[in-house]
Design goal:
Elements lengths: L1 H17 L5 H25 L1 H6 L9
């Protein structure tokens, strides 16, 4: 779902956000826009690791 939203709005994002000057709101936008991708990759790699899953039993909730 994140990827589909990203693809649909990328052209508008490039025109409106990427070409503007850097400020707090632009940084906040990029943070909230791209953090889910980082989180998905992080948890996917974390669930692949048996050592981390063994040390932190709470991760079993996130790792199906």
């Amino acid at each position: 779902m994140f990827l589909w939203d990203y693809i649909l709005t990328l052209e508008m994002e490039i025109d409106l956000v990427w070409k503007s000057k850097w400020n707090f709101m632009k940084g906040l936008y990029f943070f909230q826009r791209y953090l889910p991708f980082v989180g998905i990759i992080f948890f996917a790699l974390l669930c692949q690791s048996d050592v981390v899953s063994y040390l932190l039993p709470m991760l079993n909730f996130f790792c199906f």
